[in-house]
Design a protein that fits this description.
It is a single chain. By secondary structure, this protein is an alpha+beta fold. It has one domain: START domain (Alpha-D-Glucose-1,6-Bisphosphate, Chain A, domain 4, 2-Layer Sandwich). It contains four helices and nine strands. The chain has a nine-stranded mixed β-sheet with strand order 3-4-5-6-7-8-2-1-9. The radius of gyration is 16 Å and the shape is globular. The N terminus and C terminus are likely disordered.
């Protein structure tokens, strides 16, 4: 599976090279699989790329994904999501999100203020999230959508390091278990499909 490293220096879609999907990857996505590829960052952080197919147009997906108050519906652990400030000229926003997560028998509450940049270039649209301040040492993510088949390919790449001293392998395992479920939930909400994915989700090789 192709992965798309996240870079703080990225200033637009053209700064990231998105290689073409292989035929096998494309077929798996069109069958409804969610492809998950972890890519460790350091001893205390982790990164992961998730890809899935949506049976709706990129324009419709974009209109829902940029309603940031709805992210509490997409990711069950997110308890608050609201835009605090918006600059129409630069297409940037300041977003506040809070989440509650049980991890290693601990109940963890996190808050983060994110700088959000929306980019549209041809058929490809991207939302870039960068931490301004909050409960993470590092948090950055890119969500990209583009046409695939009669629908949309959604690619979500995230890198994060919590303030708690949790070794990266434990974080990676938690992400490996949680992210497919979160992506399934996002797809159900976006597409109005409450039947789930009968094929399940398989980790990419």
């Amino acid at each position: 599976m192709n992965t798309f490293p996240v870079s703080d220096s990225m200033t637009g879609l053209g700064a990231t090279d998105f290689p073409q999907l292989s035929k096998a990857e494309r077929d798996r996505l069109l069958r409804g699989e969610i492809l998950i590829t972890p890519h460790p960052v350091d001893l205390w952080g982790t990164g992961v790329t998730a890809q899935m197919h949506l049976s709706l147009s990129p324009a419709r997906a974009w209109s829902q994904l940029t309603q940031y108050s709805r992210w509490v519906e997409y990711f069950p652990d997110v308890t608050q999501s609201r835009v605090l400030h918006e600059c129409a000229e630069s297409l940037t926003k300041t977003l506040f999100q809070a989440a509650s997560k049980t991890f290693l028998m601990l109940s963890v509450q996190v808050e983060v203020y994110l700088n959000v940049v929306e980019r549209v270039q041809g058929d490809r649209r991207q939302i870039r999230f960068r931490k301004e301040r909050g409960s993470f040492k590092r948090f950055l993510a890119d969500l990209t959508i583009e046409p695939l088949g009669f629908g949309t390919l959604l690619t979500y790449t995230v890198e994060a390091a919590p303030t708690l001293p949790i070794p990266a392998p434990l974080i990676q395992e938690a992400v490996r278990l949680d992210l497919p479920r979160n992506m399934q939930q996002m797809r159900r909400v976006l597409c109005g499909d409450f039947q789930g994915n009968p094929l399940g989700d398989r980790q990419a090789a």
